Amino acid sequence: QVRFVESGGDLVQAGGSLRLSCAASGFPFSIIAIGWYRQAPGKERELVASITSGGDTNYVDSVKGRFTISRDNRKNTVYLQMNSLKPEDTAVYYCNWLNPKYWGQGTQVTVSS
Fold first, then answer.
1. How far is CA 5 from CA 38, 65, 86, 87, 96, in A?
2. Contacts with 22 (C-beta within 8 Å, 6 or more apart), sequence order
3. What is d(CA 111, CA 76) in angstroms, rounded to the nearest whole number?
4. Residue-wise pLDDT tens digits, 93-103
5. Which residues make Cβ contacts (< 8 Å) with residue 49, sequence separation at least 6?
């Protein structure tokens, strides 16, 4: 079974930081690129950060310089370090493949002004 379990979301003030975790299972994690997605109220789900098996990263422009994606292949876990959070970062955050399916429950990030 392919599974993604996201955690770490919280209510924070603008300018604060959070680290999200994604525990993955059911596939050969170490050779698969993984992305963090988010879905804000009334908006489509968007890919915000990705990391390849080799550690190459990409970010949507709105989070560049603020978010950092990383992975620990021994733990089958992907992280998203989020700094300088803004209210527009408020969303449910998910991890998945770059051709996504098998969505987990996500984790809620709420940034207050």
1. 14, 25, 24, 24, 10
2. 4, 5, 6, 7, 34, 36, 77, 78, 79, 80, 95, 104
3. 28
4. 999 999 999 99
5. 35, 36, 57, 58, 59, 60, 63, 67, 68, 69, 80
Q: Which amino acid, residue 87?
A: P
Q: In which element (H, E) is residue 28 found? A: none
Residue with tokens 């690129």: 33
Taking the chain (113 residues) in runs of 10, the rounded mean pLDDT of each run is: 98 98 98 98 97 98 98 98 98 98 97 96
CA 101 – CA 82 distance, rounded (Å): 24
